[in-house]
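Quick one:
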Amino acid sequence: MNVADAVLTEAGLSFLGLGVPAPIPDWGFDLKNGQRNLLAGYWWISTFPGIMIVLLALGFSLLGEGLNELLNPERR
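Output:
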């Protein structure tokens, strides 16, 4: 399991209510709370945590692929 999968799994479980307890800040929990306010016009409450989850997972995935290409002699 790589770090990008761990980030997405943790955010998904927190979104479903199966993650860390409520006083601990979490992007998945923020997405769930922002879902209620989305129709009221407060779109940024859930948009920015969602963008950060995607960027963090993409960044770790690209970093891992780059390190794999650099350090793995079979991929050269």
